[in-house]
Amino acid sequence: MPHVRFSLLPDDASELRSSADQLAVATSQLEAADLDAFDGDDPGALGRAVDHRATVRHFCEEHPDALHRSCLTGHLTGSAAIVDDAGSRVLLIHHTKLDRWLQPGGHADGEGALALVARTEAEEETGLRDLRVVWPAVDVDVHEIPQLGDTPPHRHLDLRFAVVAPADAVISADPTETKGARWFLPDEVAAVDPEGELTHLVRRALSVVRSLR
Q: What is the rounded average pLDDT for all residues in the chain?
C-alpha cells in the first residue's frame, strides 16, 4: 500500500519560488525527493535512484555552477511526468535533438526551484496550462547527453516531478523542441522505452497521482 505523503503544490508555494541561494534551494529539493514511497517498487530502480541522488549531491558540492549550462561537464535539470486528470495516462514528447520519446523537461539555467523548472518546461514544450506540481519529486536520474553540434557530451542531473494536467488540457507542442506530443497508456510506454527507465518514472508518477485521490 502507498504511504500517502505527497501533495499538490498551490501556485504560490515556496517550492515554486526563487531564492537568493539558488543552489541551496536545488539541493534541498533533491534531498526532499521521495524515492521509496510505494511498497513493491522495483528494488533495482530504487537503488539506481538512490545512487543517482548521491551522485547529484556530490556534484553540487564540487560544482558551485551546477545550475548553469556553462558547467560543461554537466548541470542540473528538472523534468515532469505529466499525468492526466483521470490518473490513467502520461504525456510524452518526441524530442527533436535526441530523437526519442521522453518526459518534458529542461535546463535550470540558474533557477534553484527545480519544481518550477519542471512545470515551466512542461508548459513550454507541450502548450498545456494550469499544470499542478506534486511535491516532492518522485525520481532522480543522471544520464549522458551525446555531443550535439558544438555542445560537448555532458551529463544531465535530473530531478523528476509528477505533474497533473487539468481535465480540459489541450496539447500544443512546441515544434522547435519536439516532433510531437501525445498521451500514452502505461502499457504503451514500454514500446518506446527499450532501457526501461522511462517506464519506471511513468509507473511511479501514476501511482503517486492516484494516491492523492
A: 91
Tell me the three state secondary structure of residue 34. Answer: coil
SS3 143: strand
pTM over 0.85: yes
Q: Which residues have CB under 8 Å from 97's CB, separation 6+?
A: 148
Q: How far apart are CA 90 and CA 81, in angstroms?
A: 7
Residue count (the chain)? 213
61: which 3 cell numbers? 558540492
> Which residue carries 547529484 as its cell?
56
Which residues contact residue 42 at a Cβ distance below 8 angstroms, ignoring those fewer than 6 apart? 200
Give all domains of the chain, ordered by start, each with its CATH number.
Answer: 7-144+155-211 (3.90.79.10)
Tell me the per-residue pLDDT of 21-35, one tens digit each, with 9 for 90 and over: 999 999 999 999 999
Residues with Cβ within 8 Å of 102's Cβ and at least 6 positions away in sequence, in order, are 79, 92, 93, 94, 95, 198
N-to-C CA span, the chain: 14
Provide the angle, in degrees to the nearest 10, between the axes of the packed helices 22-32 and 114-126.
Answer: 90
SS3 90: strand
Cβ atoms 212, 134 nearer than 8 A: yes
φ and ψ at residue 2, rounded to 5 degrees: -70, 145
Helix (H) or strand (E) holding 75: strand 74-83
Q: How many CB atoms lie within 10 A of CB 65?
A: 12
Residue 39 has pLDDT above 80, yes or no: no
